[in-house]
Protein: GNAT family N-acetyltransferase
Amino acid sequence: MIYFKKFTTDDIPQLIKWINAGSEEDMFLWSGITFTFPIDEKQLLHYAGESDAEIYSIWSSDHKPCGHAALRKIDTYHRSARIGKLFIAPEYRGLGITPIILQKLLYHSFSVMNLNRVGLGVFADNERALSIYRRFGFHIDGRLRDYRRINDRYIDLIEMSVLYREFTNRCRSV
Structure:
């Protein structure tokens, strides 16, 4: 099992280590245009200070950091938010943590924060993520063609969302 903790400055060195161990492309696929490579403390302090976000470090049951996630662009008037910056530590990939994180984020969004809509953006070639998001009731809202250039190739961005009324019983029973 995993649990969430509020992201603090104590979590910054671990996130820097994870992100900078990969490539610039890896970081871009994780963060979009939010950060520049290599990521540093100044960028993460700015990110951590976002007033319309809940940012989490994710911990394993044996109390080791295993990932990162955020609910951003929280709009209480329109009752919406975006899931973003979902990252699984390399040693925890392939263990089924992403669906657990999504389940917890959606439960929190709909049952605790009383949101109506949760959206996200995912690059079109990330079939694994697209499949997981569809399992949780996300629908494609649109496709931004040639959204970003990565290593001399363009990549589309898929915008997806799930509404409270579409929220599955599986997600509600966390």
Notes: The CA atoms of residues 49 and 55 lie 9 Å apart.
